[in-house]
Each structure stands twice: as C-alpha cells, then as structure tokens.
C-alpha cells in the first residue's frame, strides 16, 4: 500500500492534528506524517507533534507583514523539502493566496466546523445556533481558491441540544471532528493515489 507523505498545517491547539497523527501511527494508514508546520511559534500543537516524534516547524507569518505570498513561499519550501505529497489543514487560520492553493490543488484538504455550504468563515457554532438549526457538524473538503468552498469529501453531524451555547456545541463537535478527519484523509489519499 502506498503511504503518502503528509504535512499538517496548524495555528494553535492542534487536537485535529493529534487525531491524524494517532490514526497515522497504524502501519496500514494511507498517510505518513513527515511535517507539522505552524504559522505561530507558540502553537501548542507543535509540542504535541514533537512529543510524537514528528518533525515540527514554526514559520511565523508576522515578519512577512502583508506579503502573504512571501510567507507561503517559505512554507512551500519547507513542505517541498519534507517531500510532502498531501497537506491537511487542521485549524490553520490563515487565508491562503490563489498562488499557494493552485500549487497544491487536489493535494490539500481542510476541516471546517460547519455543515458546508452553511457558515463559511468564522463563528460557525454561534451562527448555527442563531439560525435555529437542529443540527450542526463538520466538513472535510478539498481546498480551492474560495474560502471554505472546495468539493466536499465527507461530513459528520450531531444534534443541537436545548440550552446549547457556542462553547458547548464546539466541545461536543470536537470529538466528532477527530473521528471524521482521519476517515476523510484516508479517502483523500485513495483519490490522490488513484490519480498518480
Ligand atoms: C477545529 O474546530 C477546526 O474545525 C477549526 O478550528 C478548530 C481547530 O482546533 N477550523 C476552522 O475553523 C477552519 N476554518 P484544533 O487546533 O484543536 O484542531
């Protein structure tokens, strides 16, 4: 079985990253983590990755100022050097330029905490509550130039309960994300491998 070299991009806690690393610890999982990359040097997930023995690197976006593409060129160099074949965005909170998205199109996926196409962008849990929705969920999708806009790979949902707040909903959704993301990444790997 082909195991694709996986890079995971994070900005903070990295609990979805951790779920992917756990799944990929199995020898028959179709992705092999080669790099965890954060755009914030204080991202907690970096420590988790290092603890799991995965190369982890911070490329701080701040010194690049408004030059998003220069920041992405630095990321791209690190990704290429690591031999990356597929990228999973896991709570990576920077909008990517068309240059980077096009470079990795068809090899980059994202997890978003809503049932897309509903609630692209931020505050997804509050927006689901404000709309009076009876269910919420998460989506794993291919990354395309539009924000949270690419083709859907897999979704998982859960009921919204009376008295739910954005925080309680986010807390109940997180373990659902942790189950969903490794499954969806495995699907994405199968599609990428079939193409090459
Ligand atoms: C997750 O809920 C993920 O779905 C969300 O950020 C959180 C990251 O948590 N992603 C987005 O909102 C992307 N638009 P984690 O760092 O513990 O995985």
TrEMBL record:
Catalytic activity from the UniProt record: N(1)-(5-phospho-beta-D-ribosyl)glycinamide + (6R)-10-formyltetrahydrofolate = N(2)-formyl-N(1)-(5-phospho-beta-D-ribosyl)glycinamide + (6S)-5,6,7,8-tetrahydrofolate + H(+)
Site annotation Raises pKa of active site His: residues: 148
Binding residues annotated for (6R)-10-formyltetrahydrofolate, in chain numbering: 68, 110
InterPro entries named among the record's database cross-references: Formyl_transf_N (IPR002376), Formyl_transf_N_sf (IPR036477), GART (IPR004607)
EC number, as in UniProt: 2.1.2.2
Domain of life of the source: Bacteria
Gene Ontology CC terms: cytosol
Catalytic-site annotation from UniProt: 112
Alphabetical UniProt keywords: Purine biosynthesis, Transferase
Gene Ontology MF: a single term: phosphoribosylglycinamide formyltransferase activity
GO biological process terms, semicolon-separated: 'de novo' IMP biosynthetic process
Ranges where the Formyl transferase N-terminal domain occurs: 5-185
Binding-site list for N(1)-(5-phospho-beta-D-ribosyl)glycinamide: 14-16
UniProt xrefs under CDD domains: FMT_core_GART
Pathway: Purine metabolism; IMP biosynthesis via de novo pathway; N(2)-formyl-N(1)-(5-phospho-D-ribosyl)glycinamide from N(1)-(5-phospho-D-ribosyl)glycinamide (10-formyl THF route): step 1/1
Keyword match Heme: no
Broad EC category: transferase
Function: Catalyzes the transfer of a formyl group from 10-formyltetrahydrofolate to 5-phospho-ribosyl-glycinamide (GAR), producing 5-phospho-ribosyl-N-formylglycinamide (FGAR) and tetrahydrofolate.
Family: Belongs to the GART family.
HAMAP family: PurN
PANTHER family linked: PHOSPHORIBOSYLGLYCINAMIDE FORMYLTRANSFERASE
Name this polypeptide is given: Phosphoribosylglycinamide formyltransferase
Gene that encodes it: purN
């Amino acid at each position: 079985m082909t195991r694709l070299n996986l890079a995971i991009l994070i900005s903070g806690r990295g609990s979805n990253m951790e779920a992917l690393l756990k799944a990929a610890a199995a020898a028959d999982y179709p992705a092999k983590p080669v790099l965890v990359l954060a755009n914030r040097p204080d991202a907690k997930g970096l420590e988790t990755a290092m603890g799991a023995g995965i190369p982890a690197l911070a490329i701080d976006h701040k010194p690049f100022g408004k030059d998003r593409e220069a920041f992405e060129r630095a990321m791209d160099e690190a990704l290429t050097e690591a031999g990356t074949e597929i990228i999973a965005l896991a709570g990576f909170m920077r909008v990517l330029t068309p240059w980077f998205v096009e470079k990795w199109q068809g090899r980059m996926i994202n997890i978003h905490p809503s049932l897309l196409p509903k609630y692209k962008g931020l505050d997804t849990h509050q927006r689901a509550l404000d709309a009076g929705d009876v269910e919420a969920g998460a989506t794993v999708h291919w990354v395309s130039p539009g924000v949270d806009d690419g083709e859907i790979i897999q979704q998982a949902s859960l009921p919204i309960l009376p008295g739910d707040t954005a925080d309680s909903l986010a807390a109940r959704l997180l373990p659902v994300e942790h189950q969903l993301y490794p499954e969806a990444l495995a699907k994405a790997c199968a599609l990428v491998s079939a193409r090459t």
